Amino acid sequence: MGARARLETADLNEPLTMVPSASTDVVVASLVLHYLKDWGPLLAELHRCLKPGGALVFSIHHPITGWLRSDRTDYHRVELISENWDWNGKTVTGRMYRRPVSAVFTSLLEAGFAIDAVEEPQPAPGVEDPELDRILRTTPVFLYVRAVR
Ligand SMILES: C[S@@+](CC[C@H](N)C(=O)[O-])C[C@H]1O[C@@H](n2cnc3c(N)ncnc32)[C@H](O)[C@@H]1O
Q1: Amino acid 5: pLDDT
Q2: Domain containing residue 29
């Protein structure tokens, strides 16, 4: 990338003080936001950083799948859920926040974004594992959103 890009690390629960206001064309957040409990402060920061017309593009675990993995006591709350992954034979537990569909979009609207596109993606042909292909093709695994300042 040479001098054309600058790499910074940040805790997304904190203000993004290194990013000037109205300086950014696109924010991409792939499978990140569901690790944050409270979206309000971050969405306000991203709205501040984006240029007018700039886009926030993100994917999260689909709220319906999160609900199926929860204890299902109250769909309408934001709750911490956990999931076990097989990592080369070792079980790793991931923890993330499940939120209702309305909370996803209300948070964006309250931060001043307009919803531009929503997708529940299915895989392109060529997934080698037939069981994984079936799951990705027939269940709500991910939610993709593009929101515009
Ligand atoms: C499932 S990984 C996704 C990585 C990559 N974006 C991708 O799509 O392959 C989740 C990422 O969220 C980051 N993350 C989780 N909580 C965060 C926080 N509070 N601040 C910054 N990054 C965070 C983790 O460091 C990790 O890189």
Answers
A1: 83
A2: 23-60+99-148
Indicate which atom in ligand 1 lies nearest the CA of residue 9.
21
The finding on whether 139 has its CB within 6 A of some atom of ligand 1 is no
**Domain membership flag for residue 88:** no
User: How many domains does the structure of the chain reveal?
Assistant: 1
Which pair of structure tokens corresponds to residue 8? 């910074």
- Report if pTM > 0.85: yes
Question: Residue 4 — pLDDT band, cuts 50, 70, 90?
Answer: confident
Sign of torsion over alpha carbons 12, 110, 59, 99: positive
Parallel, antiparallel or unpaired: strands 50-61 and 24-30: parallel
